[in-house]
Amino acid sequence: MANEGQRISEPNSSEGLELADSIKKIAAHNARASLADDKQLMLFLRSWWSKLYNRPLKDPLLQSYTLEELLYEFYDKVERNLADEERASNAEIREEEVKDKGFDDWAAEEERKEAEATAKKSKSSTPEEKPAVDPAKDPANVKWMEEQIRLAKAELGDDFGDDLELNFNEK
Question: What predicted TM-score, i.e. pTM, was given to this entire model?
Fold first, then answer.
C-alpha cells in the first residue's frame, strides 16, 4: 500500500477521454473492417475465439494459434453446427414420416374393419328376397273381391259386375 505522502499520479481527465475515444474508434474500425487482409482476419478470429471460450484477448493459448489454426477452428465450429442442425432436421423428418405411416396404417385398418362390419351388417340385415306377391292372385284378396261383388249384386241387382273381367293380367 502506498504511503500517505506518496500520491499515485492520475492522468489528466481530458487525456483519458481522448485516449478512450481513440481506442473506441480503433475498435469500431476493426469491428467493421473488411476481412480481406490477414491482419484484419486474425483480429476477427481472435475476437471470435475470445468470445466463444470466454477468455481474454491476451490469453497465451489464443496468442499461440496461427491464422490457419484459428480459421480451421472457426469453420469447424460453423460446419459442425450446420451438420447438427441437418441431423436434427432429418431426425424430425424421419419421426414425422414414421408418425404419418403409423397414422396411414391405422386409418387403413379402421377402413378395412368398417368395410367388414358393413358387409356383415348388410348380409345379416338383408332379408331373403321373397318373390313379389301379386295382390290380384292373393287368395285373401280374391275372396274379399268376390264377397264385395256378391254384396253389390244383392243390393244393385244380379247383373252387377257381369261386364267385369277378373283376369287382370290378360289383356
Answer: 0.43
